[in-house]
């Protein structure tokens, strides 16, 4: 079995809104299980596979959802505060 290019590693990338993601397109249930471990009180939901373009800013990085064909785009599994189905994941929080 080939080694996965992007291991499942959830990180917070939101500013005014809670947003978390992991590089790579992961199984959505496995992703949300990891999200709940670290961010269970954030009302996160709506997990989906997206393509991200990272751009530098004065204070760090900006993560923008883009079309897969965009130069420099990379795959991510992504969810946000009050995304679809957040209530379901809140119930399984430890």
Strand content: 35-45%
Give the overall pLDDT as a whole number: 89
Rough shape?
globular
Total strands: 5
Succession of helices and strands: EEHEEEH
What integer value in Å does the Rg equal?
A: 13 Å
Q: Supply the helix-strand structural class.
A: alpha+beta
Outline the low-pLDDT stretches: none
Report the sheet with the most strands, covering strand number, pairing sense and barrel closure.
5 strands, antiparallel
Total helices: the number is 2
| Tally of discrete structural domains | 1
How widely separated are the two ends?
32 Å
- For the biggest β-sheet, the strand order reads 1-2-5-3-4
Amount of helix = 10-25%
Tell me what the structure shows.
- This protein is α+β, with helices and mostly antiparallel strands and 94 residues long.
- It has one domain (11-91).
- 19% of the residues lie in helices and 38% in strands.
- The protein has helices at residues 28-39, 86-91; strands at 11-12, 19-23, 44-57, 60-66, 74-81.
- Strands 1-2-5-3-4 form a 5-stranded antiparallel β-sheet.
- The longest helix is centred in the middle third of the chain and has 12 residues, at 28-39.
- The chain is globular, with a radius of gyration of 13 Å.
- It starts with 10 loop residues before the first strand and ends with a helix.
- The mean pLDDT is 89.
Short structural summary:
This protein is α+β, with helices and mostly antiparallel strands. The chain has 2 helices and 5 strands.
SSE inventory with pairings:
Layout: E1 11-12, E2 19-23, H1 28-39, E3 44-57, E4 60-66, E5 74-81, H2 86-91
Antiparallel strand pairs: 1-2, 2-5, 3-4, 3-5
């Amino acid at each position: 079995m080939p080694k996965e290019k992007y291991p499942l590693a959830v990180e917070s990338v939101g500013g005014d809104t809670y947003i978390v993601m992991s590089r790579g397109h992961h199984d959505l249930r496995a992703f949300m299980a990891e999200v709940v471990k670290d961010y269970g009180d954030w009302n996160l939901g709506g997990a989906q596979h997206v393509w991200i373009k990272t751009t530098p800013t004065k204070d760090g990085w900006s993560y923008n959802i883009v079309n897969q064909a965009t130069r420099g785009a990379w795959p991510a599994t992504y969810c946000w505060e009050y995304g679809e189905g957040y209530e379901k994941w809140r119930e399984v929080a430890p």
